[in-house]
Amino acid sequence: MPNTTIPSFANDQEVWASLKEAIAASSGFGRWQNLKQASDAPLGDNLDEQVTSYLRETLATLAY
């Protein structure tokens, strides 16, 4: 029987932290933040919320 492992929640958190930092460092995210600030739209209280909002809006735009 093959040895399969279930990814741990800790690994998910590590992956999210890495992705979040990479996204936050991207020029697209910086432009999004600037547009939000210029339009007085709420950005979110922390980086987690901001990156999540950015991804939602980006995916909604791509799906449109």
Features of the shown structure:
64 residues; mainly alpha; 3 helices; elongated
Layout: helices, strands, pairs:
Elements: H1 9-24, H2 27-38, H3 47-63
Write structural notes for this entry.
- With 64 residues, this protein is mostly helical.
- It has a domain at 24-63.
- Helices cover 70% and strands 0% of the residues.
- The protein is elongated, with a radius of gyration of 16 Å.
Mean pLDDT: 88
Contiguous runs where pLDDT drops below 50 for at least 5 residues: none
* Percentage of residues in helical conformation: over 70%
The ordered H/E elements are HHH
Count the DSSP helices: 3
Return the structural class: mainly alpha
Radius of gyration: 16 Å
Indicate the proportion of strand residues.
under 5%
Sheet with the most strands, sense and barrel status: none
Number of strands: 0
- General shape: elongated
How far apart are the first and last residues' alpha carbons, in Å? Answer: 45 Å
Short description:
With 64 residues, the chain is mainly alpha-helical.
